[in-house]
């Protein structure tokens, strides 16, 4: 039975949405319960039944002496062997025998609260959605696990991609095919004329810049290239396979989401979950929605593992050549680069505060994605220029892997990255909630604020920052310099 507050909440949500399913999801009750109370309200309004105003049941007030007695028994448990400790049921029996007035449910509640305060048991962290100006939470769980060098985190990274990306992606493709195969309505037009979006100016194609992040990070795996048996062949094959998998994972599942979820309910952070809910509800297995949502969360966790571990490891190797101050080169007993991971966590925490100041989660999320894409594109521009420069200035370095047609690859990448970088400062036409003038200012502020930090560190570098020998550095990156041969022919002089 619901109290008056619950009934009023049901009516308020139903008046706002007109959807029984929406009310049930928000109130965490069944659709039949929502229908029952809506029907009763209507009957009351038509004078068919008496008032349905329910009073909140009165709870028996527990005396302080009773609570103190429960706490005293729990304190005794601290010195008792595990098998002789008082359980909640045993404590209730003792209190009943001593003629204390308390229910078994109240005893369990007091015991549970005492354990949380005194032992930290059953401690959980649930991500909240705070109102603007109220409060916010930042999860630092990833960084401590990575800093500890825990093998469990490595397993999460290895299996998370399969469980949280491939399996949900394949299921979405299958469900989307079944949806169309059973002649269910599509929420987007599927005619060939709609394959290419209409061009209405640069603002209509800006969203394509965020797609660069779909491929961003592939270069992070280069730190492991020396572990391959035949890097020149295997690394190229690995990149081609990754390219194909990315297309297969992103395009068909995205179409499956688009055909099932109405555009008004799509969000940058909730599209996949909404699609699973639509599909599973339609086929009567909506209990599977939270299962697949949890799998997607695990996949996101796995991607975070890769993003935390890979770049920081490469940055440490470069930093030990004298590019980073000693405190950023600090490693713990497990050999993990905590000097980089902790500042990284602080910076991410500051950026995440954007969700506090922008009430629209999708807008805040896109601003962070756009800023990340700009930073990545800026890094790619520098990387392509550096690659061409090193190929000319250091031709004697024999590396584990050598890019074929370097100049062609670098020029194509440089032009594409430059054009995408320029487009990234234009607010997309599909984005609402941020003023047109404010959008580029926010993106420029985040991009410039983060890009200037390494430039300042580089300008202040000192010779004593170098903590790695040339031989150790060469072994780490899998490269060596071939000494000049005494029998090599002398270069021909120009006439």
Mean pLDDT, nearest integer?
76
Within the CATH hierarchy, at the fold level, what is the topology of the largest domain?
Answer: Amino acid/polyamine transporter I
> Which sequence of strands runs across the widest sheet?
1-2
Number of helices: 18
CATH classification, class level of the largest domain: Mainly Alpha
The arrangement of helices and strands along the chain is HHHHHHHHHHHHHHHEHHHE
Helix content: 55-70%
Q: How many strands appear in the DSSP assignment?
A: 2
- Rg over C-alpha atoms, rounded to the nearest angstrom: 30 Å
Name the CATH superfamily classification of the largest domain.
Answer: Amino acid/polyamine transporter I
Description:
With 495 residues, this protein is mainly alpha-helical. The protein has 3 domains: 4-45, Arc Repressor Mutant, subunit A, CATH 1.10.10; 64-119; 148-481, Amino acid/polyamine transporter I. Helices cover 60% and strands 1% of the residues. The protein contains 18 helices and 2 strands. The protein has a two-stranded antiparallel ribbon. Helix 1 (4-17) crosses helix 2 (20-27), helix 11 runs antiparallel to helix 12 and helix 15 runs parallel beside helix 17. The protein is globular and about 90 Å long. Mean pLDDT is 76; it is low at 49-54, 120-134 and 479-495.
């Amino acid at each position: 039975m619901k109290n008056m507050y619950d009934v009023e909440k049901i009516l308020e949500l139903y008046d706002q949405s007109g959807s029984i399913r929406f009310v049930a999801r928000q109130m965490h009750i069944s659709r039949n319960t929502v229908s029952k109370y809506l029907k009763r309200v209507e009957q009351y309004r038509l004078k068919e039944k008496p008032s349905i105003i329910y009073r909140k049941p009165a709870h028996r007030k527990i005396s302080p002496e009773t609570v103190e007695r429960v706490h005293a028994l729990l304190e005794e448990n601290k010195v008792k062997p595990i098998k002789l400790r008082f359980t909640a049921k045993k404590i209730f029996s003792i209190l009943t025998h001593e003629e204390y007035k308390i229910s078994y449910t109240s005893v369990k509640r007091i015991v549970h609260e005492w354990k949380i305060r005194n032992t930290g048991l059953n401690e959980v962290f649930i991500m909240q959605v705070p109102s603007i100006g109220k409060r916010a939470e930042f999860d630092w769980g990833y960084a401590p696990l990575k800093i500890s060098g825990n093998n469990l985190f490595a397993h999460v990274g290895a299996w998370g991609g399969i469980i949280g990306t491939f399996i949900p992606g394949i299921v979405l493709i299958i469900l989307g095919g079944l949806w169309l195969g059973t002649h269910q309505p599509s929420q987007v037009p599927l005619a060939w004329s709609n394959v290419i979006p209409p061009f209405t100016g640069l603002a209509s194609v800006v969203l394509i810049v965020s797609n660069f992040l779909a491929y961003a990070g592939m270069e992070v795996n280069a730190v492991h290239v020396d572990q391959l048996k035949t890097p020149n062949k295997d690394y190229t094959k690995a990149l081609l396979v990754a390219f194909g998998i990315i297309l297969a994972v992103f395009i068909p599942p995205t179409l499956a989401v688009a055909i099932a979820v109405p555009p008004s309910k799509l969000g940058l952070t909730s599209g996949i979950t909404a699609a699973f809910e639509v599909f599973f509800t339609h086929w009567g297995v909506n209990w599977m929605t939270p299962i697949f949502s949890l799998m997607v969360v695990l996949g996101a966790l796995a991607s975070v593992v890769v993003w935390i571990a890979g770049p920081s490891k490469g940055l440490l190797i470069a930093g030990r050549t004298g590019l980073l101050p000693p405190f950023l080169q600090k490693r713990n007993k497990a050999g993990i680069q905590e000097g980089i991971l902790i500042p990284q966590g602080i910076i991410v925490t500051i950026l995440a505060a954007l969700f506090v100041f922008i009430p629209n989660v999708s807008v805040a999320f896109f601003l962070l994605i756009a800023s990340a894409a700009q930073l990545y594109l800026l890094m790619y521009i520098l990387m392509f220029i550096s690659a061409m420069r090193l190929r000319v200035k250091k031709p004697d370095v024999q590396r584990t892997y050598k890019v074929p047609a370097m100049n062609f690859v670098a020029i194509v990448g440089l032009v594409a990255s430059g054009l995408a970088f320029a487009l990234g400062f234009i607010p997309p036409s599909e984005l609402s909630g941020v003023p047109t003038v404010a959008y580029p200012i926010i993106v420029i502020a985040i991009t410039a604020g983060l890009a200037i930090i390494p430039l300042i560190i580089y300008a202040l570098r000192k010779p004593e920052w170098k903590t790695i020998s040339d031989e150790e550095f060469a072994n780490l990156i899998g490269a060596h310099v071939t000494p000049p041969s005494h029998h090599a022919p002398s270069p021909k002089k120009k006439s």
